[in-house]
Write a structure and sequence with these properties.
The chain is an alpha/beta fold. It is built from two helices and eight strands; from the N terminus they run βββαβαββββ. Strands 3-1-2-4-5-6-7-8 form an eight-stranded mixed beta sheet, with helices on one face. Helix 2 links the parallel strand 4 and strand 5. It is globular. 32% of the residues are buried.
Length: 158
């Protein structure tokens, strides 16, 4: 059972998207220096259709992407929720789905996702905004995945 510990509407998680970021608890990765160490705890509200529909309804068409931040303890559930979002919202709004995983390799459940970030946070290497990061963000291009990590390294003035 996935639990949502917190959520926010953000502009920096997925380039070019207005993202509803769902921070999922019970993270098994326990990355040293994690920016959200509280997400390793069993906290938050169970992710249900009612909660998901309420969040999507609250922000309406403003949201262009839903990003699952975590969920590595239950990848099949994350995949099912992404499929649910596509099923209920994709036809009317073309909403995209993303998954931020702390795992080193691409998850086996990539079907419904438009974006996937992989890699544990390593403090000495930095996050996605650091050119030395071990983390990678991929965008689905047809049947292939394109590494778009470098899009985080550009200056705001370009």
């Amino acid at each position: 059972m996935l639990k949502v510990a917190s959520f926010d509407v953000v502009f920096q998680e997925i380039p070019g998207e207005v993202t509803l970021a769902l921070n999922l608890s019970n993270c098994p990765c326990h990355c040293p220096g994690c920016h959200s160490p509280h997400l390793a705890e069993d906290i938050g509200e169970e992710l249900t259709e009612s909660l998901m529909n309420g969040l999507l309804g609250r922000y309406g068409s403003m949201i262009t992407c839903v990003c699952f931040m975590g969920g590595d303890q239950a990848p099949e559930e994350v995949e099912q929720w992404a499929e649910y979002i596509k099923r209920i919202r994709n036809q009317e709004s073309g909403i995209k789905t993303a998954w931020y995983s702390g795992r080193m390799n691409m998850p086996s459940v990539t079907g419904p996702f438009d974006y996937i970030k992989i890699g544990p946070y390593v403090e000495s290497l930095g996050g996605l905004k650091s050119p030395t990061t071990n983390q990678r963000l991929y965008k689905r291009e047809g049947e292939n995945w394109q590494n778009i990590t470098a899009s985080f390294w550009r200056s705001n003035f370009e």
